[in-house]
Amino acid sequence: MLQLDPGMMIWTWVTFLLLLLVLKKVAWKPLLNAVEARENKIGEALRRAEEAREQAEKMLFEQQEKLESAREEVQQMLKESKEMAEKMRAEILEKARKDAEKLIERAKADIEQERLQLVSALRNEVADLVVETTSKLVGVVVDTERHRQIIDEALARFGGQQN
Fold first, then answer.
1. Is 131 exposed, middle or buried (0-12, 13-18, 19+ CB in 10 A)?
2. Cα–Cα distance between 130 and 117 in angstroms, integer?
3. How does pLDDT run across 129-158, given as a tens digit for each residue?
4. CB-based contact 126:155 (threshold 8 Å)
5. What's the start-to-end Cα distance of the chain, in Å?
6. What is the pLDDT of residues 29-43, one digit of tens each?
């Protein structure tokens, strides 16, 4: 079985303590310095990572604001374009309406002028026919001017009764 030797135990403890003292003098400070340096590096890396995260969030916020601003600007431009298109449409319709009214007025004036020319031509034709017919019936040539005047008066009275 296992036997414990007191001398061996004492020497083991003495060796352990000596080794611990040597390690404390030689290795402990460098190990603690290395651990502390590593801890500082990790802390610095975490601090930089936090700063980078904050800067990224700030940039993201700025980009979102710019994007929102651009969206609003696009909406405003679309609204202005629609308003301008509607205004142009209204102007075009108004111009077309005015042009149509002018054409209608011109057509009415042309029709009235044609009607007056036709009435005048018809009066002249009727007057000539009546003068010719009267001359043939009576056998005497009547003064053409006086005859036309009588016919014009009769047609004027006839036209006045019609209206």
1. buried
2. 19
3. 777 777 777 666 667 677 777 777 777 777
4. yes
5. 154
6. 888 888 999 999 999
